[in-house]
Amino acid sequence: xxxxxxxxxxxxxxxxxxxxxxxxxxxxxxxxxxxxxxxxxxxxxxxxxxxxxxxxxxxxxxxxxxxxxxxxxxxxxxxxxxxxxxxxxxxxxxxxxxxxxxxxxxxxxxxxxxxxxxxxxxxxxxxxxxxxxxxxxxxxxxxxxxxxxxxxxxxxxxxxxxxxxxxxxxxxxxxxxxxxxxxxxxxxxxxxxxxxxxxxxxxxxxxxxxxxxxxxxxxxxxxxxxxxxxxxxxxxxxxxxxxxxxxxxxxxxxxxxxxxxxxxxxxxxxxxxxxxxxxxxxxxxxxxxxxxxxxxxxxxxxxxxxxxxxxxxxxxxxxxxxxxxxxxxxxxxxxxxxxxxxxxxxxxxxxxxxxxxxxxxxxxxxxxxxxxxxxxxxxxxxxxxxxxxxxxxxxxxxxxxxxxxxxxxxxxxxxxxxxxxxxxxxxxxxxxxxxxxxxxxxxxxxxxxxxxxxxxxxxxxxxxxxxxxxxxxxxxxxxxxxxxxxxxxxxxxxxxxxxx
Length: 500
Prior knowledge:
Layout: H1 7-20, E1 25-26, E2 39-43, E3 46-50, E4 56-57, E5 59-65, E6 72-78, E7 84-93, E8 96-104, E9 110-117, E10 128-133, E11 139-142, E12 149-153, E13 157-161, E14 168-174, E15 193-200, E16 203-210, E17 221-227, E18 235-236, E19 243-244, E20 252-262, E21 268-276, E22 285-293, E23 299-300, E24 311-312, E25 336-338, E26 346-349, E27 352-356, E28 368-369, E29 376-385, E30 389-396, E31 402-408, E32 411-416, E33 419-423, E34 431-439, E35 442-448, E36 455-462, H2 468-471, E37 478-485, E38 488-499
């Protein structure tokens, strides 16, 4: 191999050789579906990652991996709804783990919090308000020279942390101005956000997101600056941006918000989020790709547009591909409620979820939801309702926009764009099986009285517009269950399958 071969071509050559020799590969995303703003930390040979929780509780689910590709949930760090939870940062300092995160109340009303634990598997502390507002996306940084702890935030700001990391000292200061986005690029705005910092060799590398997180396909990016001191001054990389979608023809849109992670043998990778072309309803998904240092000490991501192709795994596979036991209803792991979390409201056992009804429609019921990254999927469940309760299946974006099908002793129901559209004939059956299918954004419903013979409902709905660019909130269309009215709804025989 000629020494002068560019790094990008070298990486592609290695990929071809690895594929030809049947080396283990993986295909992005490493977490499919709504797993945005990934933040990652290594503890020896173990990796832990968490994401924005938005309005889902329990929130800040912590995932574990030994190979950076296969991930399993091991804990959740937030059991109360503080508001919409954004852009966390997970880190370890002096033997203790911390997650710093932003809470949005809407209308640019922000606050920043921290939780901590002795182990990523919890238990996690109650959230502590750091009394820092206006700026978002906190990132924990330690000055290796002085031992001082800092919190870097959006807009190129930082504030000093106390020694225990649970409060701040002094005032916010602006230390970085960002990278000047070319005038002819199409972006949402400047949006200097999502700071993440790593020390590699003699330099601190400061990564930021710019351009806006959604909007046009070419909006988002990850840019790099470096300094020999955590105090700056910061020099922008001549090869910025590190990550970016340059054209809407690419498979992954709005690539950005990157977080660097190393391996024990000194290699570097980056996790970040992106929308899948044509499937914005799935939310921003977590991707992984390698990065490396150039001869003059800058970071580059040589995979480029090939990130949607099979890539060599960071390690020999150490984990079995994760299996999601959705019929076990593990709340806080696979399953989460919307805005309200009351452990006394539900019971789980075997493959059964007993859910106390609340509210007078699915939006007021705080539905219980899970993440999917599939283009085509269906879920079905057996439902038994108390006389004054209604239960069903739902695809939920927010309390204004959702669609689904339900059943109560008074009959069958369906919802489209958050509105009840019709009522089926009353039925005295104590149990019914319902099925909801989403096939490339086309949603249809089915019912059965024995779980074997299904009748297709005479309605279909198109759901491709249920995403942030249309509806705001940064969320995604999540499948799940609901129970409203009075009494209890019992869900059994839950089944989920997906296909292309």
